[in-house]
Amino acid sequence: MTASSDLLSRFPGRTVIVIGDLMLDHFVIGGVDRISPEAPVPVVRFEQETWRLGGAANVAHNLAALGARVLVIGLTGADDAAATLRTALERLGIASSGVVDDASRRTTRKLRVVTTRNQQVARIDYEDDREVDGEAEAALISRIEQLSSSADAVLISDYLKGVVSPAVARAAIAAATQRRIPLLIDPKVPHIDYYSGATVITPNHHEAEAVTHMRIRTGEDALAAAQRFRERANCESVLITRGEHGMTLLGSTGNAQLAAEAREVADVTGAGDTVIATMTLALAAGAPLIDAARLANKAAGVVVGKFGPATVTADELRRP
After folding, report:
1. Has 129 been annotated as catalytic?
2. What is the pLDDT, as a whole number, of residue 9?
3. What is the pLDDT of residue 290?
4. How many CB atoms lie within 10 A of CB 229?
5. DSSP 119-181
6. What's phi and psi for 152, nearest 5 deg?
7. Taking the C-alpha atoms of 211, 183, 194 and 140 in order, what is their torsion angle to the nearest 10 degrees?
8. Is pLDDT at 126 greater than 50 in this prediction?
9. Is 255 exposed, middle or buried (0-12, 13-18, 19+ CB in 10 A)?
């Protein structure tokens, strides 16, 4: 058994809490063979529609696909999209007891009109991105305190849709610190001050540049930016994802430059979700940080070959 296979064999049964912005990705798919006479836009002839989990829900889906026991904590509205999202989570065996319904908000839904050739024609966003407060915020914090008692790792998936407030972030970090378990964050630049005390933060290179005011063109640039990012965010380690240039890890026990492993790129949507899900579960299973990063890099290479928000399985990661 290889080291990678041994690590993957430890994934089932590990419990990860995902805290963040739950979304529903709605795809309306059809053929295009003419332009509208009413405006210079394509006419899409409807053929089918599909729904996929997005945002923090896609992170949870990635974890479940790898064999983890997953608990999600987030917000939805009291609408049809919320019911669809909960049903999809439960169908995958993902516990939704941590989801808070807030009738004053709408569930985040991204409606994409896509051709049969996977070309996006338009996107409509249904969302309410004001930062959570009051009773809804208190309910989220209560669920973090209750559910973290069984966790092997905590993951914050921040999409700036309102769930990750300063108090919610502090509660998550405090819970992970108390249990001495890793806490990983897929960040957003405006919330950089919320993340102090995290184990690992995984910005993409654009986010790292925005936080550090440094240009990233080489691996050395990325490592220097990661060092400044770590100081700015006050976290233990930083993994900068750099697309076709791979990843740069600044770890508490060592650094690494990881070359991209993608053989064919179909769609990069949700690749960051796959990276942080894989890395979190690997750390929850006891892997050293560098091994967790290598496995996450391999997972990214697999998932960008798929269309839309997608997942990777342990069997796919075992393949050479």
Report:
1. no
2. 92
3. 95
4. 24
5. -EEEEEEE---SPP-HHHHHHHHHHHHHHGGG-SEEEEE--SSSS--HHHHHHHHHHHHHHT-
6. -100, -15
7. 140
8. yes
9. middle
- Condensed to tens digits (0 to 9), the pLDDT of residues 99-113 reads 999 999 999 999 999
Domain count along the chain: 1
In this predicted structure, the answer to whether residue 208 has a pLDDT above a threshold of 60 is yes
Is residue 242 within 8 A of residue 216, CB to CB? The reply is: yes
Q: Return the amino acid letter for 242.
A: R
Alpha carbon distance, N-terminus to C-terminus of the chain: 13
Q: Which of 21, 152, 186, 273 is catalytic?
A: 273
Return the residue matching tokens 């983890």. Answer: 68
CB contact at 8 A, 201 and 164: no
pLDDT (tens digit per residue) in 87-101: 999 999 999 999 999
- Using the structure block, give the residue that is written with the tokens 């993409």: 204
Q: What are phi and psi of 210, to 5 degrees?
A: -65, -40
pLDDT at 315: 87
Task: Give pLDDT, residue 280.
Answer: 97
- Res 24 pLDDT > 60: yes
d(CA 29, CA 26): 10
> Model's pTM, two decimal places?
0.92
Rounded CA-CA distance 45/34 in Å is 10
> CA-to-CA distance for 115 and 28, rounded, in angstroms?
8
Q: In what order do the strands lie in the sheet with 255-258?
A: 95-101, 69-76, 15-20, 153-157, 183-186, 200-201, 237-241, 247-250, 255-258
Range of the domain at 76: 3-318
Q: Give the CATH number, domain containing residue 128.
A: 3.40.1190.20
Q: 257 - beta bridge partners? A: 248
The answer to whether residue 3 scores a pLDDT higher than 60 is no
Round to whole Å and give the CA distance between 112 and 25: 8
Length of the chain: 320
